[in-house]
Design a protein that fits this description.
Blueprint: H1 2-20, E1 31-35, E2 40-44, E3 50-55, H2 64-92, H3 95-130
Antiparallel strand pairs: 1-2, 2-3
Length: 131
């Protein structure tokens, strides 16, 4: 029983630690988007800031408005990628499962505590009966 209880608590602690710990740049690089057939590449950090914008020199042949539209498209694609990465990261921690596990731990600990109290009461009655 104690081993099961300890295991449940350890699983819950690990899941909560993972949910609460901010990811490193290696674990979560942010987002990336492209436009103009890959000739424009935008990257955003995990906090949503534009960190780089790269453009192939051939994009200079575009008109100014078309170039601006393509840059906006690349940045929006990078932000969309960031959102997808965030959703995937939050989905990695099963909060519903964690809540169920904690509920199971609570129910099991209450049941075991009640069993323990009944055993103590029975032992006390036996001791009183001998006296």
């Amino acid at each position: 029983m104690t081993e099961d209880f300890d295991r449940f608590l350890e699983e819950a602690r690990r899941a909560l630690d993972a949910a609460d710990r901010p990811p490193s740049d290696e674990e979560f690089p942010g987002g990336e988007g492209t436009a103009a057939d890959g000739r424009i590449v935008a990257r955003v950090s995990p906090d949503g800031l534009l960190t780089s914008l790269q453009a192939d020199p051939r994009v200079m042949r575009m008109g100014l408005q078309e170039l601006c539209d393509q840059v906006v498209h690349a940045v929006n694609a990078a932000l969309g990628d960031l959102r997808s990465n965030l959703d995937a990261r939050h989905g990695a921690v099963d909060l519903t499962g964690l809540a169920e596990t904690l509920g199971t731990v609570q129910e099991e600990s209450l049941r075991k505590m009640n069993d323990f109290v009944r055993e103590i009461e029975e032992l006390a009655r036996r001791i009183e009966g001998r006296g």
